[in-house]
């Protein structure tokens, strides 16, 4: 498994609750603002919404990364970090 960031470890350490979408690994202020404009505001409703999209795409890396590129212009590194964060969170909590 690739080395995870502290942000990644923090996210997967607990349930989503009311986390902002910027708590997702790979999502900083710029991508967070783009997701917000697209209707994805909080990690909870929105990280949950991002999680929902992740699940709708059947946890498929390529489809999820393409979706992130389309919805918020994420680059490969950002979308890969977000994908891995959600995958690991699902492993812990679902």
UniProtKB/TrEMBL annotation:
Report the coiled-coil segments: none
Which cellular compartments is it found in? Nucleus
Q: Which SUPFAM superfamilies match?
A: Barrier-to-autointegration factor, BAF (SSF47798)
Example GO biological process:
chromosome organization
Could you tell me the keywords of this UniProt record? Nucleus
According to its record, what are the GO cellular component terms?
A: condensed chromosome; nucleus
Q: What is its main location?
A: nucleus
Q: Which domain of life is it from?
A: Eukaryota
Task: Name any one GO molecular function.
Answer: DNA binding
Keyword Nucleus included in the entry's annotation? yes
Which InterPro entries does its entry note? BAF, BAF_prot, BAF_sf
Q: Nucleus as a keyword?
A: yes
> Protein name, please?
Barrier-to-autointegration factor-like protein
Gene name of the encoded protein: baf
């Amino acid at each position: 498994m690739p080395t995870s960031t502290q942000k990644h470890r923090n996210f997967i350490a607990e349930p989503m609750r009311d986390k902002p979408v910027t708590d997702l690994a790979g999502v900083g202020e710029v991508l967070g603002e783009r997701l917000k404009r697209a209707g994805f505001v909080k990690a909870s409703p929105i990280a949950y919404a991002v999680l929902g999209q992740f699940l709708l795409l059947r946890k498929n890396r390529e489809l999820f990364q393409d979706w992130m590129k389309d919805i918020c212009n994420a680059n490969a590194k950002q979308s890969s970090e977000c994908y891995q964060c959600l995958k690991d969170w699902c492993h812990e909590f679902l």
